[in-house]
Amino acid sequence: MSSPSGSVLGIGIDLISIERMGAAIARRPSMAQRLFTENEHTLLTKGKSDGARLQSLAARFAAKEAVMKALGVGLWQVDFVDIEIIGGRGGAPTVALHGRAAHVAAERGITHVLLSLSHDGDSAIAMAVATGSSGVPS
């Protein structure tokens, strides 16, 4: 996405239980394939303990739901893999939109999504702010 500029067009926040995320993936390991891109899997498995990996997965899942809310769509109106969370360690996480998510953003004039992630104890949280120009005269 381009640099953040323009008006705030949407916000989203999501909170998830890290333990619940781990239990869901343990029950259905294929679920991770539907939720995370190949790049995210690579980033999240490199040199991390199971606990740290699970914290990162939960934070990114919360981020994807927060981005959906900021885009103004509900769950499964865009594929989770169409929202990619990049970076993190040593740098602020960024959002790359693909497929239907990119199409929805373009339709709504969204050019950038700002993102903040955090986790503590058994919770992970994410907040997303969509910016751009709605194209609607004020």
CATH class wording: Alpha Beta
Helices and strands, in N-to-C order? EHHHHEEHEE
Kindly identify the CATH topology: Ribosomal Protein L22, Chain A
Number of helices in the DSSP assignment: 5
Secondary structure: helix percent: 25-40%
Distance between the termini: 25 Å
The spatial strand order of the largest sheet comes to 1-5-4
Count every beta strand, where a strand is a DSSP E run of 2 or more residues: 5
Per CATH, which architecture?
Answer: Alpha-Beta Complex
Low-confidence stretches are none
User: So what's the overall shape?
Assistant: globular
Largest sheet: 3 strands, antiparallel
Compute the number of structural domains.
1
> Into which percentage range does the β-strand content fall?
25-35%
Q: What is the mean predicted local confidence, pLDDT?
A: 88
Radius of gyration: 15 Å
Overview of this structure, please?
There is one protein chain. The protein is an alpha+beta fold and 138 residues long. The protein has one domain: Alpha-Beta Complex (Ribosomal Protein L22, Chain A), CATH 3.90.470. It has five helices and five strands. The protein has helices at 18-27, 31-35, 38-45, 50-71, 99-107; strands at residues 7-17, 83-86, 94-97, 110-120, 123-132. The strands form two sheets. The protein has a three-stranded antiparallel sheet. It has a two-stranded antiparallel ribbon with strand order 2-3. A hairpin with a 2-residue loop joins strand 4 and strand 5 (123-132). The longest helix is centred in the middle third of the chain and has 22 residues, at 50-71. The radius of gyration is 15 Å and the shape is globular. The protein starts with 6 loop residues before the first strand and ends in a 6-residue tail after the last strand.
